# Entry
Amino acid sequence: MRKQFTRIFTASVLLIHACFSVAAVNPITLTFHSGTTTFSTDNTGSANFLVALNSGIIPPNVPLTFMLTSPVNSPGLTATQKLSGSSPCSGVALCGYTFPLSAGETCCLAFNLTSSAAGNYTMQPTINTTPPAYPAQASVLPVTVTNQSPLSSISVSPTTLTLVQYGTSDCVTVTNQSSLSSVQNLTAPISPGNSMVTGGTSGTTCASTLAPNGSCDYCFLPGSQVENGTQATFAGSNTSNSVPVGITVSAAPTALLTISVSTLALSVNNPGLNAALTGHPRQITITNSDATATAYNVTFTAQNVAPANPTIASNATPNTSCGDIAPLGTCILTITPTGTTASATPYNTSPTPITLAISGDNTNTLTPTVNILTYGSVYEDGYVYSIDDSYANYPLGVSVGGKVAALTNQAAASPGGVIWGSNAAGTVNNTIIWGIAETSTTISPVPNAGQGATLYAGQQNCAGSTVGSCDTNNIYLFYQNYIGGAPVNLSFYAAGRCKQTIGNYTDWYLPSLCEMGPDSGNLVCNTVTVLQNMVNNLPSLLSDSIPCAAPAGCLAGLFWSSTEYSVLPSNFAWFQNFGATTAFQSANNKNLVYGVRCSRALTPN
# Structure
């Protein structure tokens, strides 16, 4: 019985083996993939093979374990299997020392090749599998090993570099001194590791290989820190020497930035409210005032840009900064209003301007302010009621022109107030003042000598109804210098109240009639081209209640203008009645006490 079982088992094993043998026709392929099979004794070669278990021949659930036999045929050639790291067969994993594969799988059998003697060698990896045994052998692969290539040597000039913090790159020249051998794997690592110097920057022509007797440039860029003792060491994998280059990064010299204006005023873009509100762009010029030092990495940032949100752009590329500004060079910022909204709410007596912060890595910091104005904006100690945004009068690089009314009265409206003209004793004076009546022009003054006026030194022919600054100057000169008992106390007469310091300014004047309001039927003020005036452009300040209580700085009642009445200039001058519903103009006796609200022109810059 036992002999019969043994014969049956043996036959079964033979049948199984025969079945696998039939099924395993060429189940494994072992083919050369890539490598470096010609190399010198001082270098390393490589040979990479693909091992594949063909799908459909071996049952898919029967993995085979491969075992490598000696991969070389020739003594003197050493092949070391690569078991870790990246695979040299793209997309195919490395084979292990022993490696299971299932049907349809592939792995990369990779070898590093070395030899100490030149010669012609062959290699032919052989593998076997368990179970069952399926030996596979690659085709014979020839390998050529040459004698060690002669060493090259290099020189570097100069061997010291001094760079400037934040500055531009500087270069050294590397030369291969050998006429026979190329420099291989040229590098220049920088130490210490925390150095901010960068090697191989713009201007570098060196590659990893340098031909015999060849030269190339290698460039270094400084960073933002001062450095001493930094070193770049030049060497190749086959050079007999290495060359250190000492690098010093010196502190960048300070560059002084200046600006064309410290405060810039612009108009809103609101021609629908008034054609004068054109919203023209205006510019600030930043200058590097140093004749030798570059201003590095000059940037600008804006605070409090809302609600006006103007655009701010430089003439540099990109336009969001100025970059480096050369000695005596400039960067121009263009500020453009984007709509009808001012930078601060009109009538807000504590407005916050837009503030720019301008600085470079080696410069001072500048903080100019930007104001986007509309009617009622509080600027230069007054309420804006007139804006001149024309480039003809106020070019691109300066602020807009315009006029403001003082924030408060300089004399209360009647029954308080002050007389129009006064002698030294504080009582009315009816002297006729030269060239300030409503009909006066710069060519034809009224009053004039024919009407009993005297032209004193410093006085001018004024456009009496529209230019209060000229009127006020003529009035002030007379009472300050030419009346008996001069000078008259400035608080005694209306124009004198405006020649005093108000807030931070001393250039106030008593406004002319048409600066205060539009024509109300007297045909004094132009009704076609209406002069920008307080009544039309400061409506929120007007009140019919006398005295008015709100808002702060409100206007109500009778106020003197600087314009004399041409029909009776000795006794009469024009006044403006401020009111929300009762605004009008008329003339009355100079001995009456009316209110005073001074005006001034915006400071040109």
Residues 22-146 form a domain with the Jelly Rolls fold (CATH 2.60.120.570). Confidence is low (pLDDT under 50) at residues 1-24. DSSP finds five helices and 35 strands in the chain. The first helix runs from residue 2 to 23.
